[in-house]
Amino acid sequence: MTKMDIKDINNAFELILTSLSDKEKSVIEKRVGMYWEKQTLQNIWDSFSPSITRERVRQIEFSWIKKIWRVIKWTELFSIQEEARKIVNLNGWIILKDRLINHIIKNLKLPENVNSNILEVLIQSDFDLIKSKPKLWTKTYFFTPNINKKSINDIHKEALKILKKRKDVMDKTSLYELIKINLEPNYKWLSNVFIDSVLSIFEDIVTWEENLIGLTKWRILNPKTLKDKAIYVLKKEKIPMHFVDITNKIWDTFNETVKVNTVHNELIRNDDFVLVWRGIYALKSWWIYKPWTVIDVIVDIMKKNKSPLSTEEIISKVLKVRKVKPTTIYMNLQNKDLIKRVWRNYYTLK
After folding, report:
1. 235 and 191, same domain (yes or no)
2. Range of the domain at 19
3. Using the 8-state DSSP alphabet, how is residue 291 labeled?
4. Pick from 190, 216, 242: which residue ends a domain?
5. 345 and 317 in one domain?
């Protein structure tokens, strides 16, 4: 295919319009926004005198779109249909409308400001591709006639059931494998590509950081508070992190400047986090990590000091990694199994 610019596409499309009646031509020009912004069915309905019903506008639009299929075959616009078919097949025979159009623009190296409504009409006119009907909580998508429509709803229901039971984001591959196992009796042919394309059309499920997936309503997928952002970072990294590293990741991920001390205080005061080592935090939900207690902190400090430390020195060092009352630290110093007082107000390991 010879690379087309916007003028080539518009001229070829205008040539196709000449094969239509005046009413059909007018409706389609307004629906794709040939010479002005794209108009709604309501606006088009009101512009006719006498006016025509919204359903009649929809019928004209649909019948014309299918009418031009043979005309397009003899124009350079046919390559757009061929590319669309290829992309839909590679994505498991189903794909979001916007994703399909973006792929076409990229693959055929079309201008980024090309009229996407024209591209949509060209795709819709192909008898080998079907455009979805408007449905609540579902995005517009294209699919091939061989698609099992029941499988779309079954995959969506199974994904919701698994995610609601888990109550947390999942690795996409893990979720898809579970869906295939649970639906295997009825759909042995399911693939990860098909499941991924199906779930992308539903607004109540959202992909997170490309590899993770969860429910749109979950706060972790749209973190607002500093606590939520810290949880977001830890779940993304999947390992315990020092509070300074968590702060830096919040800067990078959310383009938000926050103070290290502010993040550290948030980690200390929320039960969602546990201190697992000196300044290093994990999520409490990662039950394999045990919280580092005050006595653990004291023992670690004393191991790194060859000589006994005063009560004031110990309190100062503990407060750098744990926000606790000085009296709590003093009470832990009375642990005679681990701590020995060697002089007045001086302590060391037993």
Report:
1. no
2. 6-132
3. P
4. 216
5. yes
Tokens 């107000």 -> residue: 345
**Per-residue pLDDT at 217:** 84
Structure tokens at 296: 């653990």
Full-model pTM: 0.65
Encoded tokens for 322: 């744990």
Assess contact for 174 and 196: CB atoms under 8 A.
no
What type of residue sits at position 292?
W
Query: What is the mean pLDDT, run by run of 10 residues, along the chain of 350 residues?
Result: 80 86 80 76 71 72 77 88 96 95 94 90 91 90 94 96 91 95 92 96 86 84 87 87 94 88 91 85 82 84 88 88 81 90 88
Query: What pLDDT, on the 0 to 100 scale, is given for residue 90?
Result: 95
Number of domains within the chain: 4
Residue 143: phi and psi, rounded to 5, are -150, 165
Say yes or no: 72 and 14 in one domain: yes
Q: Would you say the C-alpha torsion 345, 346, 349, 350 has a positive or negative sign?
A: negative
| Residues 80, 171 within the same domain | no
Residues β-bridged to residue 273: 283
Q: How distant, in Å, are the alpha carbons of 116, 180, 204 from that of 28? A: 14, 42, 33
Q: Which of 191, 154, 160 is nearest to 176 (CA)?
A: 191
Residues 165, 200: one domain?
yes
Answer yes or no: do 272 and 299 share one domain: no
pLDDT of residue 193: 95
Tell me the DSSP string of 211-269: TEEEETT-GGGS--SHHHHHHHHHHHH-S-EEHHHHHHHHHHHH-----HHHHHHHHHH
